[in-house]
Every structure is written in structure tokens, then in C-alpha cells.
Amino acid sequence: MLLQSYPELRTRNRDVIEAALKASGYSTRIELPAGSSTDDFIVHRAAFGEVGLTFIGYDSPVAIEVNPGNDILIGFQIREVSQVALRGQVMENTVSDAGCLIPHQSPWSVRNPRGYQVLILRVTPDSLRRKLSALLGADRERLDLRQPCASVDRVLRDVSLNFARELDVVDRQFRPSLVASSTEDICMGILTCLSEQYLEAERSSAAPSAVQLGRVEQYIVANYAKSLTVETLAEISGVSARSVFGHFRSRYDCTPHQYLERIRLEMSYVKLLACRDQNSVGLVALDCGFQSLRHFEQAYRNRFGESPVPKLVERSRRGGPRKPARPVRKRKGG
Question: Which terminal Cβ of the chain has fewer Cβ within 10 Å, N or C?
């Protein structure tokens, strides 16, 4: 079960179940087993403006017809199978699939013959259109999304499920950073994998510019503790964010967000040299913009080969602190 720290409803009362489904504003007709239910209907919901997550669990058969909604939904089946009818086509959404996408303003229905557990990702179309415009360097009013493909798009499922799991364990002070980072990852995952406009534009190459790239590098170094969005990349560089991604792949063999994490790790290394208390590790991680203490500790260990716990005495015996590695620029022709 996911989002257990965000309880909303747990009931076996048929009337309450039907009212809860209709209260979403989408449901038009609901079919539940006759008589009293012997299974709990469970809803956990976490909403964060542009992105939201809802976990629904029910061990009895249920069928729901849904009105067109204003948001884009992607359902990730966790147990059993859902039969989704959308635009005259019936699709099975199983645990092995990458999810089932419901476009906004589209009526749909779902039948769960053996009950289900599903994590529903909600994203506002305005946020996706804004990010798509930043990625491609021109305003995009239209948003064409295809269905996830099980063989290539499971990364979006993994990001969404990991977001839900982290929300249950992350310290409260890290939550804004976790939400900002996960929101960006989810929106980027949808656009770079499921947007027909982005996939079409990706087939054409973008000319690199050292000056434009330099602006982005300077911004990242000066604002390493802040979240980095594709809108920021486009605004700072003056070109499409897609071009910036291409520049970073060519020059540093990484994305701008991976480059940002490198800078954050270098700054945390320097800050930890002044720490003598193990409790300071969390404060340093928070101050450097990391989304959770667990993520920071793992990234730090992968980067420097040691725990971030301050060991000033041991370091002095080894001859002082080891300098963190800077991102290495690729040489032309080599």
C-alpha cells in the first residue's frame, strides 16, 4: 500500500464508497457487488498543485464510468488488472505495463473484475504545455500524448512509484524539495517519452552555443540549492531547453540536472569539512537542495566513495581532504 501517511478514506459502507467516487467529480455510474461489502475501500491522496498522486485499493469487483476531466491521468496497476475503455478501444492495464494514460477532456470507463490496487498520477495539461514550450522554444497550445509502451516507458512508472514511497518516509523539511524534483522528473518523463510534438522535434538537431551554455552553467553554480526546471533553462539560455540538453550531453556527457547534482555534491563536501556533529549531515543536505537525506547519502557515497558523516580527524591523518572531482569537459576531436 502506498501513500499511507496521506490517509483519506477507509470504509466498507456501500453508500460511502459510491459517494467518495462521485465526490471526485468524474464518476457518472458505479457498479459494486450486491449487498454489503466485506472488503475495505481505501483511498490515500496527496495533492501538490500541478501534480497529484492517489492510491486506491479495493478487493471486490467494481466498474466505474467517468466524465471528462480537466487533468491528464496515468494509472499504474499494482495488483490484478484493469480493463479501461477509452475512445472506443478497450485496453488492459496490468502490473507489467507502463501505465494507462487518460487524456484530459476524454470520457472513459474502467472495470476491475477482481478488485484492484492502483496508483493514479494526475498532471495538469497547462504545466505540460508550458514545459513543452520551454523544451521546444515556441509556444505550444496543442498537447498530443501517446499511450505508454511497456518496453520503453516504465521509467515513468518507476519515478511515480518511487515518489509515492518517498513521500511516506521523507522528513517534513525535505518535502518541498522532493515535490519540486519529482514534479519536474514526472513532467519531463511524460513529454520526452509520450509527447508526439517532442518526439518529432527530437529528430532534428540543434546547433550548440558556448555562450548560451555558459549562462546556464553560471546560473546552476550560483543557484545550486534551487530546483531547476526546463522553463528556467529556456529563460536563462535564450534558446530551447532541448538545445541546452543537447549541449550538456555533448560537453559533459550528462543532463543539466545531473550537472546540478554534481555541483551540489561538491558544495556539500566543502560544507561538511566544517562539521563535527553527525546531525549536521541532514542540515547540509537540505541546504544544498537535495530531496531527501537517503538520496543525499547514496549520491555522496557514489561520488566520493565514503559516507558523508564528518570525519575530520581521519581526514587530517590521511593528509587532508580529498578534492572533489570537477565535471570534465570533452576535448574536441578526442
Answer: C
Largest CA distance in the chain: 75
Average pLDDT, the chain: 86
DSSP letter for 113, please: B
For 111, other C-beta atoms within 10 Å of its C-beta total 17
Q: Report CA-CA distances (Å) from 145 to 119, 172, 232, 283.
A: 20, 34, 23, 40
What number of other Cβ atoms are within 10 A of residue 69's Cβ?
Answer: 18
Calculate ∠ Cα 18-5-189, nearest 5°: 85
**H helix intervals, the chain:** 14-23, 125-136, 154-169, 175-194, 196-201, 210-222, 230-237, 241-252, 256-272, 280-287, 293-304, 312-317
pTM above 0.70, yes or no: yes
Over residues 106-133, the pLDDT tens digits come to 889 999 998 899 999 999 999 999 999 9
Task: Report the chain's C-alpha Rg in angstroms.
Answer: 23
